Amino acid sequence: MANGNETVVYFSEQVVVLCSCALSFVGSSLIIVTFIAWSDLRTTPRRLLVFLSVSDWLSAVSYAYGVWSVFRTNSVDCVVQGAVSTFANTSSFFWTVAIAIYLYVFIVRSSQRVADSLVLVFHLVSWGVPLIITVAAVCLNKIGYDASEVSVGWCWVSINAPDRVLWMLLTGKIWEFLAYLTLPVLYILIKRHIHIAHAALSEYRPILANRPPSHSFSSMADRKLTFIPIIFIVLRIWSTVRFILLLAGSAARQSPVLVTLHGIGNTSQGAANCILFVLFTKPMRTRLCTALCYCCSRCRAEGQYSHDASHRLLPNQDASTQRGGGGGGGGGGEEDDGGSSSRAGNQR
């Protein structure tokens, strides 16, 4: 399976991870495109989701290039790919936590003004910190070929760096650990607040004529809040396990099953976000279905129109062909003259 510290990435693993990258690419693109297409759905939380999707889109593209290439040396494209994936992956951690903080302030603290004022801070931190870390790592020659020690074919922290564990922490793992701790706490607090609000509302529900419209929205949000930290941990835990096995010096980190799960987890965030925030969101799902049905009906209508038009044009084309051929140019002229003489006689 491996020679020394090098982990072999099998072709089957490449195919699976590349498919995961493709799904994440499509999912992130769909989130971005729907945000651009439908202006009435451009809420601040969805805008933050778009910034997260940009990071996931970059991650999917850079990881796909790395998995496809399976680098063996510290080449220029290896360093570039490693730098892009490091920046995008770290930025994804920050944006994921930023969305949780925004929802906490907005829902629990009930302050949209304060929540909106944090957006600028989110930009500075979520783009600035990963950029600084990545630039420092590249300038100090810390990014390069890592023999897939804690990756799946792509480049990350160079295996030749004597302090590579420290840089693995700085360029991803420490932020991953913080996200493991922060996300569950924030979402538990948000869910607790929603449950308390439901309990308070239930005292008045019997005397209300209709169920409050906010109840269905809160229930839907409550279900989603359960999945967000769970999905994040389920996807990211495999890379964490391989990192811990690296620290322990265990060869189990080179297991094909663990390597495959690591590759899928690191590249599926965009697809998971698309499923949760687009396909499982009724307004978005309804609009997508409507747009898809419209496109299909339009394509069928255009195809039918082209088919009918071709049948209408064929007889005329045959007639003109016969006039242009057969009797030659003179025959065509005689036929026209005869028709003209006949019309002239009728007029007289």
From TrEMBL:
The chain crosses the membrane at residues 15-36, 48-71, 91-108, 120-145, 165-190, 225-245, 257-280. The keyword Ligase does not apply. One of its GO terms (molecular function) is G protein-coupled receptor activity. It is found in: Membrane. Residues 13-281 form the G-protein coupled receptors family 2 profile domain. Residues 323-332 have a biased composition (Gly residues). Keywords: Membrane, Receptor, Transmembrane, Transmembrane helix. Residues 313-348 are annotated as: Disordered. It is a multi-pass membrane protein. One of its GO terms (biological process) is adenylate cyclase-activating G protein-coupled receptor signaling pathway. Pfam families: 7tm_2. InterPro entries: GPCR_2-like_7TM (IPR017981), GPCR_2_secretin-like (IPR000832), GPCR_Rhodpsn_7TM (IPR017452). Coiled coil: none annotated. Residues 27-190 form the G-protein coupled receptors family 1 profile domain. It comes from the Eukaryota. One of its GO terms (cellular component) is plasma membrane. SUPFAM superfamilies: Family A G protein-coupled receptor-like. PANTHER family: G PROTEIN-COUPLED RECEPTOR 157-RELATED, G-PROTEIN COUPLED RECEPTOR 157. This is G-protein coupled receptor 157. It comes from Solea senegalensis.
